[in-house]
Specification:
The complex is a heterodimer of chains A (373) and B (336). Chain A is mainly alpha-helical. Chain A has one domain: MetI-like fold (Orthogonal Bundle). Helices cover 70% and strands 0% of the residues of chain A. In chain A, helix 6 crosses helix 12 (279-290) and helix 13 (292-316) packs parallel to helix 14 (326-332). Chain A is elongated and about 80 Å long. With 336 residues, chain B is mostly helical. In chain B, 76% of the residues lie in helices and 2% in strands. Chain B contains 12 helices and 4 strands; from the N terminus they run ααααββαααββααααα. In chain B, helix 5 crosses helix 8. Chain B starts with a helix and ends in a 9-residue tail after the last helix. The chains are: A mainly alpha (373), B mainly alpha (336). Chains A and B meet through helix 7, helix 8, helix 13, helix 14 and helix 15 of A and helix 1, helix 6, helix 7, helix 10 and helix 11 of B.
Chain lengths: 373, 336
């Protein structure tokens, strides 16, 4: 045999633990970086939670709240599990990008969403909170492009009934929308993927019990549950996000299950089983990576539904009263529709285009990942 | 065994699901602070009485201090015997309040669902057979628009345009004033009258825009699935025209999945949509009843109004599954 010449390279001499750790120093370095990021985030959170007083600002004048910590955690997670793999697998990324690029509208949507994301996350460091600009002297100022006595470049999009700058309300609303969209989606795809993969791979009673639970969850519409729970417990953005994340994964769960049922019969899964891989290993290393295309597409299309749901809740008055959700601003402008139509219209346009952009990107992604459709 | 056994099991499961859903509402009620009791305690504190005493009185009057299992049996028994308690804000039994309200929801809901199914299926099927034409792009434009536009914002924009701007807008010398519609619902008009129909136009437009997109997408994918199947090719070879193929051959097969999707879609819309539409247009239907109950802290009515959509959803899912089995002989119902 050829390998006899170099015994160090022989198959039976391979240190499989090292291979499993990623086959080289690159990934373990990455793992260290990821763990360090989590630890740093946790330490910062602990410092804010235990050391700093409740209302005192964390960084500069910005008091980081519970949802924002969670948002930071999700962003770190996304960086290590979406951005890093894309950079590492350049050839694959380039291929998908070429597919994606064919859709010009989707590219424009992606640019729009990226700009909105950065304004939403970093904007509050630049623009003051809406409540600090209350000034009844400039209430109902129309947008600058309409002209009028009160119009000024200072508040380009006009002001609301309390003289708050509409642009500030929009910027703070962007953050709320991205928080609900990304955190709830991350939660629901994680639970949905794990449940779907486990149900499909284990089958039998595990499958039956999990899918019956999915049935029950489906009969309890999450919107009704949210209304009932905010009635009983009072509204907070964290509660809304967690409820959306924990109680609306049934669609993704079903999708992953049906996809994983096919994967389970593939040769590589049977090979792994025959080689003695544990069930957890097969699910983690073989089934979940191979359904990730479905999951990513479903996730992109789930984001806009969560954003719309939260906006609708806030519009009805069930939202968190301490956040500046777009739905809440639109509702506030409803009574002034005759005299100051821009208060409802402009935030609504932002909401509409955000949801539209996510839908465009999601459809383009699903075309790029699965060209059969 | 076979189909009857499947149907029996499916119905039994619906009963179990109902029982679990009602139990969940009970657990939520017991676990959460009682909003009515909190309000009573606050009122007493404002009047200088002992708030704890008031809270206890409030809970005792409603039998909420009894052992949990007694309360549970009482609660389940009440739901099962259609004794859903008394709504103090509506000053009538909960079921009567719900019975009075649903008519107003149905008035705009049924036309909207029929309209969106009709419109969605025709656009979807047509664009599937004429891919990459202007009609197809128009169809996908409608789909994206309907899915992405926030219901409540769309309703407000329609009110702004039709109710506010039309009042004094003039285009090419024509005053648009006659086209201006009532933006708030009035219960004074009889159900089948022109005035009532006119004031329902906006709610129907909003609801069907949200729904038409989904119907269109599903019917398009369904039609594309069958467009190249053998029986369609055979029909074409025999010389059937485009519309005949579409309606007699494709639509007939696609109708089973489409009708079940219609049920699911309609239910989802009923829940979220009715709240929004009735809040904006001030229609005294089921959604508005729930909102009022929440604002008045009328717990029996809140529970009653949340159970109705849950029951409808369980029944909808049941009929959906049964319809599949009864309508499509290819489905294997043996082992599940």
């Amino acid at each position: 045999m050829a390998t006899q010449d170099s015994p160090g390279e022989a198959f039976e001499n391979v240190d499989w633990d090292e291979v499993d750790a990623g086959g080289g120093g690159g990934l373990s370095g990455l793992l260290i970086a990821e763990v360090t990021a989590y630890v740093a985030l946790l330490a910062a959170f602990a410092y804010d939670y235990f050391v700093l007083a409740n209302e005192s600002p964390t960084i500069g004048s910005w008091n980081v709240k519970d949802v924002e910590w969670l948002f930071a955690l999700v962003l770190v997670l996304m960086f290590f599990h979406v951005v890093v793999p894309l950079v590492r697998n350049r050839r694959m990324t380039a291929y998908y990008w070429r597919q994606f690029r064919k859709n010009k509208v989707a590219i424009a949507s992606l640019v729009y969403l990226t700009v909105l994301f950065f304004i939403g996350t970093l904007g509050p460091l630049v623009w003051a909170g809406p409540n600090s600009t209350i000034d009844f002297a400039t209430a109902y100022a129309p947008p600058y492009f309409l002209g009028g006595d009160l119009a000024s470049t200072d508040h380009f999009f006009g002001t609301d009934a309390q003289g708050r700058h509409l642009w500030h309300l929009i910027v703070y609303g962007m953050r709320v929308s991205f928080e609900i969209g990304l955190i709830a989606t991350m939660l629901s795809i994680t639970i949905g993927t794990v449940v779907g993969a486990v149900a499909a791979y284990f089958g039998g009673y595990v499958d039956e019990v999990l899918m019956r639970y999915v049935d029950i969850q489906q009969t309890f519409p999450v919107f009704i549950l949210l209304v009932l729970l905010t009635y009983l417990y009072g509204a907070s953005l964290l509660l809304i996000i967690l409820l959306y994340g924990v109680f609306s994964w049934e669609g993704i769960g079903r999708l992953v299950r049906s996809e994983a049922l096919q994967r389970r019969e593939e040769a590589y899964v049977r090979a792994a089983n025959a080689a003695g891989a544990s069930r957890g290993w097969v699910i983690r290393r073989h089934i979940i990576p191979n359904v990730s295309g479905t999951v990513i597409t479903a996730a992109t299309l789930a984001i806009p539904t969560f954003i719309l749901g939260e906006a609708a809740l806030s519009f009805l008055g069930f939202g968190d009263p301490s956040t500046f959700s777009w739905g809440r601003t639109i509702n506030a402008g409803r009574s002034d529709l005759d005299s100051a139509w821009w208060i409802s219209t402009i935030p609504g346009l932002f909401l509409f285009f955000t949801v539209l952009a996510f839908n465009f990107v999601g459809d383009a992604l699903s075309d790029a990942i699965d060209p059969r459709r | 065994m076979g189909m009857k056994w499947y149907v029996a099991r499916r119905v039994a499961w619906a009963v179990v699901a109902t029982w679990i859903a009602v139990s969940i509402t009970f657990v939520l009620l017991v676990a959460a602070p009682n909003p009515g009791a909190e309000a009573a305690a606050q009122q007493c504190a404002a009047q200088g009485q002992d708030p704890e005493q008031c809270r206890e009185n409030y809970l005792r009057e409603r039998g909420l201090l009894r052992p949990l299992h007694v309360q549970y049996i009482d609660y389940m028994g009440g739901i099962a015997t259609l004794d859903w308690g008394y709504s103090f804000s509506q000053e009538k039994p909960v079921l009567e309040a719900i019975g009075d309200a649903w008519v107003y929801s149905a008035q705009y809901f049924i036309p909207a669902i029929l309209l969106s199914a009709l419109g969605g299926y025709s656009i979807g099927l047509y664009s599937a057979l004429n891919r990459y034409t202007v009609a197809d792009y128009f169809g996908s434009f409608i789909a994206y628009f309907g899915i992405s536009i926030p219901n409540f914002w769309f309703a407000i924009m329609l009110i702004l345009i039709v109710g506010v701007w039309f009042r004094d807008a003039v285009i090419f010398g024509f005053a648009l004033e006659p086209f201006s519609l009532r933006t708030f619902y009035s219960t004074d008009f009889p159900v089948f009258s022109v005035k009532n129909a006119k004031q329902l136009i906006l709610p129907i437009v909003v609801l069907s825009t949200a729904s038409v997109a989904g119907q269109m997408r599903y019917s398009r994918t369904q039609a594309l699935e069958y467009a190249n199947s053998d029986f369609v090719k055979t029909a074409r070879a025999k010389g059937a025209t485009g519309w005949r193929v579409l309606i007699r051959h494709i639509f007939r097969v696609a109708l089973v999945p489409l009708s079940t999707i219609l049920i699911a879609e309609a239910l989802a819309l009923l829940f979220a949509g009715s709240f929004i539409i009735e809040a904006i247009f001030q229609i005294p239907g089921l959604g508005r009843l729930t909102l009022d109950a929440i604002n008045q802290k009328d717990t029996p009515l809140v529970i009653g109004a949340t159970l109705i959509p849950v029951f409808i959803s369980i029944m909808g899912n049941l009929f959906q599954d049964l319809a599949y089995v009864l309508l499509d002989p290819r489905i294997d119902y043996g082992d599940r």
